[in-house]
Amino acid sequence: MKRVAILISGSGSNMVALAESMVGYHPARPCLVLSNVPGAGGLAKAEAMGIDTAVVDHRPFGKDREAFEAALIERIDRAAPDIICLAGFMRILTPVFITHYAGRMLNIHPSLLPKYKGLNTHARAIAAGDEEAGCSVHEVTAELDGGPVLGQARVSIAPDDTAETLAKRVLPMEHRLYPEVLARFATGDRTPISLR
Questions:
Q1: pTM of the predicted model, to two decimals?
Q2: CA 175 vs CA 54, 56, 116, 165, 180: distances in Å
Q3: 93 is in an annotated binding site
């Protein structure tokens, strides 16, 4: 049974989808939900689900990302996870952190990678005139949103879509895709999957 630490910064909707998927027969179990934001909505949700929670606030560290990440690693390693899932964790991680968890860390990104790395993905897809948008789960490497893609889910872009309406349609697909990829990843299966 693989142990999973889930890192969040906000409401934790993808964290909830992951944790709920791990109830019953599943090759993994959540061992920690950690946020860099004290009071993040997802922490209360995790506590209500009986999952250990922790906060490592990035603000006291100022611009010292290495010191923040050292504290982050210390707290994560205390939970002894096999897999790290980034689920709306809004901090760019340094190569030191990424190397420490190399081959064990997943992230979900709201675009069809390699398109639209970074922020404002839905607005950029609409502005480009794309017919489809979606989300991707990928292994985390030192390149931002650049690791091997393990799964994608697609939705059509409607002519009257805004970034907000598109995001609302993509989010339920994130909640389907991430748990499926995690279940496969926990068994060592890295074969990419595609959902519609």
A1: 0.96
A2: 23, 25, 20, 17, 9
A3: yes
Residue 120 marked ligand-binding: no
Whether domain 1-101 has CATH 3.40.50.170: yes
What architecture is domain 109-196? 3-Layer(aba) Sandwich (3.40)
Domains in the chain: boundaries: 1-101, 109-196
Residue in 26, 58, 100, 109 annotated catalytic? 109
pLDDT mean by block of 10 residues, the chain; 196 residues: 97 97 93 98 98 98 96 98 97 94 97 96 97 98 93 98 97 98 97 96
Contact between 107 and 79 (Cβ < 8 Å): no
Residues 120 and 141: beta-carbon distance below 8 Å: no
Q: Among this protein's residues, is 138 annotated catalytic? A: no
Residue 65, marked binder? yes
Q: Do 1-101 and 109-196 share a fold?
A: yes
Residue 49 marked in a binding site: no
